[in-house]
Request: fold
Amino acid sequence: MDVRRRQALTATGALAFVCLTLGMAPGVFPTTSAAASCVGPQLAIGSDPAAAEPTAQESPAPVPVPASEPLQVSGQWFHEGCDDTGTGGAGCAGPITTSQSPMKDVDLVLTQEEESWTLGTADAAGQAEHYAIGWEVELPDDVAPGPAVLSAAGTEVMVQVSG
Reply:
């Protein structure tokens, strides 16, 4: 066998090995995929936790919030841990298990300039409810009209407090 042919066969074999190793040869090996990655907590103004779904918009406009009315804030995916496969050790045939648990004692905090107030504390619901959480709170009297940030468990919503 001549040298060029040997080099070509060696290169073809190496390329095939790399493609198989990286899963670039469809249909050769069965593949499985994870159910989803773990979603972090999401907040929304209002009582509907589903409104907290992420949007493609990067910098949403501040949500208007009246200072003199009760404020409802809701969210979902407030959990500890991350089970990004959604299955137990037996694969699809096994029971669904999770290493996630609902967050407890989650503070809802309003921050405005150098001042911050803890508005309330709540526990998240379970997995079947998408780890939903909600607060109904009153803004403190010393909150000024203007921009502020509502936050809980590392997620935040920009708000515009009106007088």
